[in-house]
Model the fold of this input.
Amino acid sequence: MATINDILNFAFTHKVFTPKELLANIKDRNPVGSLGSLLKQINRLLKSGQIIRPERGVYSLPNNIKRDFFINCSGDIRSIDLQLKKQLPFADFCIWDSSAIMSYILHIPDIKFRCLYTSLHKGT
Done:
């Protein structure tokens, strides 16, 4: 099922969109469900004011909305994540790659860094 973040990320890149365009784009990456379930998510976003409907069947972002910082994880990061979840099921951790911040820094280093932060919790 499409998440609210999927819809908002599509809206930020396409500015104005229809549900059919959104469905076609999201279906390529993950199972979405039906157009009806997608419309329910869109209606939730409409009610909360996160998207607007300038005309019938067309949606866009309001002018005053700003995009949250969002990172698309690479396959390497996902495989590290899965391995850690298997080996340390009760650990809270954060994994990130330096490529996530490349567009925000002035001098881009030629080295890729991967960082891992963990916080172990005792199981109850």
About this structure: The chain has two domains: 4-60, 75-120. The beta strands are 16-17, 52-55, 58-60, 91-97, 114-120. The CA atoms of residues 18 and 55 lie 10 Å apart. The radius of gyration is 18 Å.
